[in-house]
Amino acid sequence: MQQDMIVVLDLGSEDNTLIARELRSLGVYSEIHPHDITAAQLKALPNVRGIILNGGPNRVVDGVSIDASKAVYESGLPLFAVDHKGQIPQNLERWPKDAGQLRDTLRAFTFEACKAQANWNMENFIADQIELVREQVGDKKVLLALSGGVDSSVVAALLLKAIGDQLTCVHVNHGLLRKGEAEQVVEVFQKQLGANLVYVDASERFLGKLAGVADPEQKRKIIGAEFIRVFEEEARKLDGIEFLAQGTIYPDIVESGTKTAKMVKSHHNVGGLPDDLQFELVEPLKMLFKDEVRACGVALGLPDNMVYRQPFPGPGLGVRCLGAITRERLEAVRESDAILREEFANAGLQGKVWQYFTVVPDFKSVGVRDNARSFEYPVILRAVNTIDAMTASIEPLDWALLEKITQRITHEVPGVNRVLYDLTPKPVGTIEWE
């Protein structure tokens, strides 16, 4: 690894990612690790120049106030504490969270105390990952779970540079894709980019497994496990497949929970993986935030319409069809989402709003249709802007646009009689509803 690193230790803070992103914005690589990191684990991290102990409201675990391990205090590395109530050795500078000017203080700690170099950039990152992938994979073959989204597309481009025809991409249609999604993936990756692509229509299989399942965590785990089963079956049809590549990124790992950071929700590619996984994972983007993934895609030469396309969750429309999935509501989500995307494009908002989609809950409301009582589902619109997917603000939409979208959805999507607009930022909401 070519980059210097500052380690952020999680001692119960709710803003570890804020510190990590501030450091990366200064041009210095950073990673978040548990408070009880061992001497061996710390030694295994490359080019560590300093450690930040980031305290916070979750510092008490099972009635005990946590502190950094002995290895940290005896590491000899420069230490810096933010809102920390543990040991304060002579080589540790303490900084209260409400003192202000944290960015300037981090800059001084990073470059003056740690003597770190501002060498965190995408060119170095890509070179490092290509080398690491080649070391990990050797002459074996890799199966890539290609959804066609930004993350898996960037992984595909990076792996093609690293291992070329040792890569086989598998696109699984789990029946929870957006309208026209599967066809678009095949067109771009197989016909335009010439990737070795296997297309699998497993929609009936997934929907059967999800029948009657209402809990979102259980849905994610079922989807994640079934993806793996499909990949295993496809791998058995090929020779020498020992690795599974995924588009896992840092927010997936952070939101799935750590020892002291509370879980927001498990991601299908993190918390949903089965215990008996038959592959070794290849996840070259797992330490990148979403905006960094896009920057990586640009550096790899991917076209803008691929790099800046809307994010789409691995569980797909399964987490936008709230509660137990029914085919009726799933189609309502798919068709209303297509209308929303079409009208955003017509209004010139495509590429200007980070993510927009529809949600259909599992309850109905009374309405009037053709001068008679109707009892149908509502559709919820959501449009958010964010940089790193860790926080998000709401896009203020033009009223006339909302009226047009409402008119189309209530008249073109069967079984829908209301349209609502979600005004909740992240936090307190999450970007997705489930």
Give an overview of the whole structure.
The chain has 434 residues and is an alpha/beta fold. It has 3 domains: 5-113, Class I glutamine amidotransferase (GATase) domain (Rossmann fold, 3-Layer(aba) Sandwich); 122-307, HUPs (Rossmann fold); 326-421, 2-Layer Sandwich (GMP Synthetase, Chain A, domain 3), CATH 3.30.300.10. Helices cover 36% and strands 21% of the residues. It contains 14 helices and 17 strands. The chain has a 5-stranded parallel sheet with strand order 2-1-3-6-7, covered by helices on one side. Strands 10-9-8-11-12 form a 5-stranded parallel sheet, sandwiched between helices. It is globular, with a radius of gyration of 23 Å. Pathway: Purine metabolism; GMP biosynthesis; GMP from XMP (L-Gln route): step 1/1.
Overall spatial form: globular
Q: What's the CATH H-level homologous superfamily of the largest domain? A: HUPs
Low-pLDDT sequence parts: 261-272
Q: Quickly count the helices.
A: 14
Tally of strands: 17
**Biggest sheet layout:** 5 strands, parallel
CATH fold name of the largest domain, please? Answer: Rossmann fold
Q: What's the alpha carbon Rg, rounded to whole Å?
A: 23 Å
CATH architecture of the largest domain: 3-Layer(aba) Sandwich
